Amino acid sequence: MSHAGPKPKLSWEGANDRYPRAVSDEGDQSGLNDWHVVPRLVKRGAAIGANANFVCGVTIGEGAMVAAGTTITHDVPPPADSLKRLTMALIRALHDRKGTSRPSLTLARVVVRRSITLSATILFGLALVAAPLSAAADETYPQPEGGLAVRVSGHHLVNGDGEPIRLLGVNRSGTEYSCISGWGFFDGPGDDASVAAMASWHINAVRVPLNEDCWLGINGVDPAYSGANYENAMVSWVNLLHRHNLYAILNLHWNAPGTQLATGQQPMADADHSPAFWQSVASTFKNDPAVIFDLFNEPYGISWTCLRDGCNSLGWQTAGMQSLVDAVRGTGATQPLMIAGLDWTNDLSQWLQYAPTDPHHALVASYHLYNWNPCSSIDCWNSTLIPVAHRVPLVTGELGENDCAHGFIDSYMAWADAHSVSYVAWAWNTASCEAEPALITAYDGTPTSFGIGFRDHLLAIDSSESKGERENRVRPRSNHDDRF
Fold it and tell me: Minimal CA–CA distance to 290: which of 330, 324, 245?
């Protein structure tokens, strides 16, 4: 049973809509079919003050408390989490007050360490002490260095302030094969200057391909470049990306079943190691809200049922996407999860029907596109991708063309910009702009004739993206599917 004061407002989508609109996503005048009611969930034991206001889709956690007159735009976690976050925010805020000395941590230690059934008295006492403090001390979402955070809201990715964002970035290949080859962790530099060069193109994300054997330290990989050493190198790399205000997309790129060495791409994740890989990776990064987990790179040669549930049609047991989702969520990690389609992740035609179930409703559709792929026309994008993008965020995890030009990606980026779709180009490596295809000729950011088109496009749209002008053209559409 929950308790509510007088006149709480559980808003329908016309009132306090997160994204009010007069037109549909296609630019037509909105009709009845463009407005959808989505649930607000108030869990057992929650207490809601008078005149509290709730936007669509929020969840009030079990035993949580909502003050009178507040407007709730994000989920309210259970009190055990809330108390700890409030206490730490209070400590930092008190310490930052000008003209005061460092406060004693005794209260915080007692509050956090004791097993407490949260009461109104405790919250009221903390609120009184913190009353003069700015509301900016809200710790609903823990912030890494730089304040980066990303999560799913409707069919958009949003930042820590709930503002829609897109991931516009590059793949930095090498971390999937250098370790297994026994020469290091990176192909090329992995230092601050190399990341600064990437950031100079005005990207906001880097996709990091990972090797299953190197991370787990199995199948005889050189210990110098596997196990704890590989894990620590990847953690340091992600932290370096964050220091340049870049999100990190962590991707299972190379794997292999049994005692086979992970020296290339497989048709699907393997049941022998892939769930353990994601359990370990998610445990390592679960407190970093600026990472996205891309559960498997490019499935091929399997069915949609196998993609979701696993199968043994390849001569070994695969791990379906549902088992990988379960492995991540079992650690307590809540980050967005990118789920691939079929045919080297170029086919999303049945993605909605076969998407796994995520208890945190944070699935992201993963799509790969090159000029040689079957779904490489505007007609295919309109018929196949738009229905998916209206339900969940859509991230083009790889994008490229092999003609040392950029006309193909130019057409796709223009389409993606108009439909709020993210894209991450392949690849930030010094190789052939035909075979790779490579974006750069040197790690200082000198572009290839292919990369220059990608770089110049990002530079051209940066000012409108930073002001949110482009994102405001397309607004999230709510849905009733409990998986998303």
Answer: 245
